[in-house]
Amino acid sequence: DRTLMLIQEYPVYKIKVDGIKMADSSTIYTRLANIPPIERPHDYVIMGIDLGYTDPTAIHVLYNSRGRIYYHARIELQKVPYPLQKQLISYIDEKFGRPEVIGIDAGGPGKPVVQDLLEHDEFIHKDFKKRMIPVEFGSKIILGQDADGNEIKVKMKPFSVSITQEYVNSHRIIFSSTDFEFISELERTTYTKNATGDIVYRTLTPKGGQRGADHHTTALLTAMIAQYELKDAIDRRPKPLFYLRNVHNKY
């Protein structure tokens, strides 16, 4: 709901890369190199990544300034091979000073990309394990224990939406009036409950169809889960509040 959002005028740089038309990787690197640096004084940088191929990869670059989160860039990679995507993510990471907070969708065909970024010798020097939170939306998370010592589990997808909605409603995220395309995508997100009572989210098309693109919404959700895990939850407890556990394959 746009009425709950805090929207201010500031630039957001939007880059779209077609991996078929830009078969030469140097052209892609040039496009990314032309994204201006973050000029506003800030405390740290945040990235959110939703991996895809035919369904595009969405990479969001945000920053935290005095407790408020602002957008800087939204990058969309369409049909870019996964091996090159790893290199591009590493490049963006370096360009913005190795962001302290990175959330990345670890489900589906992009899972090997996440594993390589975290484990492969090529990237081990970047310490992604200290900065990157893999998010599996089909998993459950453990919030703690009840009075009997049983684990309290909730599904990742609704939890990520709840956390993000909290940030939006409290105006911790400041959206840009120069990026109503993204605001519109967020507004088209709806949910229903299936026969088992589980919440199912979907993003409508601009004309109300049932199969709208949600890649940028998902990138924001991963960024906010990482923000919560690496920054906010640690501020509240001496250890992370929750742990990701892959329990279900679908949400």
From TrEMBL:
Gene3D superfamilies: 3.30.420.240. This is Terminase large subunit gp17-like C-terminal domain-containing protein. The lineage of its organism: unclassified sequences, metagenomes, ecological metagenomes.
